[in-house]
Design goal:
Strands 7, 8, 9, 10, 11, 12, 13, 14, 15, 16 and 17 form an 11-stranded mixed beta sheet that branches. The protein has a 6-stranded parallel beta sheet with strand order 3-2-1-4-5-6, sandwiched between helices. The chain is α/β, with parallel strands linked by helices. It has 14 helices and 17 strands.
Length: 438
Amino acid sequence: MTDAIGVAVLGLGNVGSQVVRIIEDSAADLTARIGAPLVLRGVGVRRIDADRGVDPELLTDNIEALVSRDDVDIVVEVMGPVDPARKAILAALEQGKSVITANKALMAASTGELAQAAENAHVDLYFEAAVAGAIPVIRPLTQSLAGDSVLRVAGIVNGTTNYILSEMDSTGADYATALADAGALGYAEADPTADVEGYDAAAKAAILASIAFHTRVTSDDVYREGITKVSAEDFASARALGCTIKLLAICERLTGEAGQQRVSARVYPALVPLDHPLAAVNGAFNAVVVEAEAAGRLMFYGQGAGGAPTASAVLGDLVMAARNRVHGGRGPRESKYAQLPIAPIGDIVTRYYVNMNVADRPGVLSAVSAEFGKREVSIAEVRQEGMVDEGGQRCGARIVVVTHQATDAALSETVAALADLEVVQSVNSVLRMEGTTE
């Protein structure tokens, strides 16, 4: 039996407490799997005066001193946010400690800096838990598909927004009601902005795109829209079209006519056909679909968040890093050789759903259709229905237009022109349609 592997855990929240519990409760199994015992050397916390459920002797609020200890070989960072986590991780890497982190915001913003520090010190940097909780996505992309060419990664990677949209779909609730329900059940934070505005999903998309396409992609490179404008009316229209609505993270390798390649990374709510695998992913669950040249379509599904599921991913990384310490070798390193340019959202081609209120008089539909035609946005389907006010009087009409494929730039120009038409009272919503190529 080799000497013990010393572990420092930074953070003792929902995930950190589960990591500590598993290390302690599964000590014998972990020792057998690694070839050496894991020994918890300390737990870094912001406050050490409260009952934290672990041996008080292990607690410290001196993070810098903890990661610098000679008897610490691996540092597990589950404290967030970007700072002070970044400083602690850099210090650990620079001192030759392998690092496991669940910090998606940090990895999306500072992958290059951290990867270079790990490379300089010849240690491991693992981050499976940064994307989709317990679902193994990072390791398949970095190892199982290392010899393949990934074409597309698309999925539902935020449990809070998926719960909200699932509730709106199944109950007919509006956004505010579904958000309140998510908060009451603990799925939504007191400040849900990172989730509902798409920032969390964008960070995960950046990580996935970086790995899948061997190109350094940051959160700033990801086009982002949230779900706050999705309405119960949109869901009614989606059902009529045989669709539901999901917040999708989409990472795609785009190949031009001359063979030139670019990367697209984007997050937005989209209509998804009910027969698409992602349409059946409901509640707080996550799912990621990977499409590769040789492997074809692969789908990964499961718990995307929560203390125990995320801790499972952390422990998987911890075992790998510890094995490398015992037996020699290192895990996958950053691969950025492709250095593909990022495609702007205006170049992306997909289908669209446009919902608008218009005047109820002859010639309106012709005027609306003309604006689409001027920009070569082909219309696939039009639905029109009259509207009445509280007194039962007709007060206009609602038109829903579904397009064939078009560029985002052409659609954006069309929507701007529609908003300026005298016969258009309001453009209520514009959503993309994914999972269909008609």
